[in-house]
Amino acid sequence: MKILIILLTSLIFVTPFATSGELNCQMCHGSHLQGNVVTGAPALNNLSTNYIEAQLNAFKQAFRAKSAKDQAGLDMRVVAMQLSQQEIAAALALVKKLRVTNASSKPSNIPASWQTCVACHGANGEGNDSLNAPAIMGQQPWYLFKQLHDYQEGQRGMEPADEAGQLMRQTSLLLSAEEIKQLSQFLGQSNKTEIK
Amino acid sequence: MTRGLTRRQCLTLFAKLAGGSAALMQAANVLGITSSPGNAPPIIFKAGSGQKKSVVMLGAGIASLTAALELSKAGFHCTILEASQRVGGRNLTVRSGDFIDEIGNPQICPFDPEPHLYFNCGPARIPAEHTALMHYCRELAIPLQLFSNYNTNCYTHDDKAFSGKPIRIREYETDLSGFMNELLGKNLSKQTMLDEGIGEVELERMMEFVRQAGDLNKDLRYMGSERAGFASGGITAPGKLKTPRKFEDILHSDFGLAAMYFMRFSDQAPAVMTPVGGMDKVVQGFLNKFDPKLVDIRLNCPVRAIQINKNTVDIEYEQQGVIKKLQADYCINAIPSQILLGITNNFSPPYLKAISKIQRGNLVKIGFQAKQRFWEDELIFAGISWTNQDITQLWYPEHGFMQQKGVLLGAYSWEPDVTSRFMNMTHAQRLETALKQGEKIHPQYRQYIENGVSICWRRMNHLLGCGSQWHPDDIKEHFTLLQQPEGRHFLVGDQMNLLPGWQEGAIRSSWLAMSHIRQELQASSGVQ
């Protein structure tokens, strides 16, 4: 019996999800990876797999989730810390499978500050992998709102190794509180969640 | 605001969490979710009234198990979809080798494989006034034993009092009462009594009440009391009274602000009960009773979409990577709100808004296996010690008396700041913190502790929270809305009652959902 327990224990630490037998992105990020304000998990179904992989790495290296104020980030950090390469591959495959595109929907009420974003994030906010700029169109508005504030406050984009993050931090400092709100609402208009 | 006040407020909060608030109980009564004490009847369906009808339950916790038991008795075909690998929800008892599925801190329970070495990670006690749960304990023949919330041999500890040394609860309570009543006695006069409209005869009786309450001497002075326990002797030699503690110390401790009265709440006061062998005997009791032809439990089946139709509900769920569909006449949904809000659905906007009002809770418990029941050497058999440190409580087991080893609770925290601190530690850091703080109460603690488990409910896979709460302002509009059917969909569980954290609330929410189903069945059979 004891030997069995030791065996099981060692298995668990190698592949922590083995016993639960599944990868569980959807529990926090939503059944269709559309995001969930209560768990603080963003939409993943508009993001490229390259960007997600980079962010998993950012969580692992604590480029993100730097303080107790970012509880959702800390939650994601413990997940990122325990994911195996296999599980990361499975997660990326899931994102691909559930991916939605907002390309056809022409956004309305474009705020003036939108021009600050397009150079990196694309004319339709679809993102640009070569610049490590994520898709922002169709993201949850409360999430964009929080990230822009996190950049401004130096919770994100402070690590020398995180070049895209550093650039984003500089850009965020150009935005007023009102502009952040407008941009978040504009980009998240395909999401129904309100900013609290 | 002082830390003491914060503590008191939090204890009040906990009282609500754990169901002690009279105001909330009254609200619950008004809303019709409790019955008067006694033998509560479940929802009874006419025999055979569920034949050829189907119900799907989402989540295999106490609410769904209740529904499956009652509905299958009436002939309904019941399917329970459970996202995790186990039945029971937050009713979780861990024993040797059990998997604790916490995100970031997966653990295998390291306790020795002995029947008395188990730990109730979720609910742990059953008050007699929880008549619905008691009904099932009776029906499912679940043996109960006493659980002790109150044992004055246990300690109270506060960094700010008694030089940070623990003292026995009986000493604290006796000295406090002695000092308070001495002060009261000094200030009682004919005039003060007359001001209250109380006559001379009653004044004399009042003096005697005060003397008895404080165990004062003839001069109404408190000189120590046998109630605090003798310093020495008392059996074969005359007992020697303990010297009373300093009144300042008593007042500097937070114990008398809140924790001391915990056991006065009607659902925490002696005697409360617990199933012999672990709380999950309740779950086992339900499972034993199910007719396998009528109750189909599917584990590892997370729900991906819920669509409510006019007379049916469609569920999409995933099983081993394959999306499957299921249609039922009724859906009883116990998925925690924080997860439910991420599941694609066609709920009406007011219903969705109401769900978003449910406040996600967090509770943390730590269980330790001790190689020797050192607390028994200190005359402690069951009960709770209190401290103003993050661990808040130590529970000594009510089972396995005088065995070699024992499992004790090394922390139970509910204050949000405290639970966040524990949550953001690794499992090893949590155990170390609990050991360090426990040493303030039992200096020799560390040498006896062999291993431990930590449960942080906000991080538990497929649950992501425990002890969700309703803000009083949201009850009238949103809570009552969710108590109503949404088509043939009913939201139930711990979150759908005003006694979060208790199984009683889950059962009552399920009974309420079934009362709607019964009503609808009666209405539709009237039409035929």
Roughly what is the average pLDDT of chain A, rounded to an integer? 84
Oligomer: heterodimer
Main β-sheet of chain A, in a few words? none
| Whole-angstrom Rg of chain A | 18 Å
- Percent helix of chain B: 25-40%
Estimated helix fraction of chain A = 40-55%
Total beta strand runs of chain B: 25
Helix-strand topology string of chain A: HHHHHHHHH
- What would you call the shape of chain B? globular
Written overview of the protein:
- The complex is a heterodimer of chains A (about 200) and B (about 525).
- Chain A is an all-alpha fold and about 200 residues long.
- The N terminus and C terminus of chain A are likely disordered.
- Chain B has about 525 residues and is α/β, with parallel strands linked by helices.
- The longest helix of chain B is centred in the last third of the chain and has 25 residues.
- Chain B has 17 helices and 25 strands.
- Chains A and B meet through α1, α2 and α4 of A and β5, β15 and α10 of B.
What is the compact description of this entry?
The complex is a heterodimer of chains A (196) and B (528). Chain A is mainly α.
Write the layout of secondary structure elements.
The complex is a heterodimer of chains A (196) and B (528).
Chain A: H1 2-14, H2 25-29, H3 49-60, H4 71-82, H5 85-97, H6 115-121, H7 141-152, H8 163-172, H9 177-187
Helix pairs in contact in A: 3-4, 7-8, 7-9
Chain B: H1 3-17, H2 22-30, E1 54-58, H3 62-73, E2 77-81, E3 93-94, E4 99-100, E5 107-108, E6 119-120, E7 126-127, H4 131-139, E8 144-147, E9 155-157, E10 167-168, H5 169-187, H6 190-195, H7 200-214, E11 230-232, E12 240-241, H8 247-252, E13 272-275, H9 281-289, E14 295-298, E15 303-308, E16 313-319, E17 322-328, E18 330-333, H10 337-340, E19 344-345, H11 349-356, E20 364-370, H12 374-377, E21 383-387, E22 393-396, E23 406-413, H13 416-423, H14 427-438, H15 445-448, E24 449-456, H16 472-483, E25 489-491, H17 503-527
Parallel strand pairs in B: 1-2, 1-18, 2-14, 9-21, 15-19, 18-25
Antiparallel strand pairs in B: 3-6, 4-5, 7-13, 8-13, 9-10, 11-12, 15-16, 16-17, 20-23, 20-24, 21-22
Helix pairs in contact in B: 3-9, 3-17, 5-7, 11-16
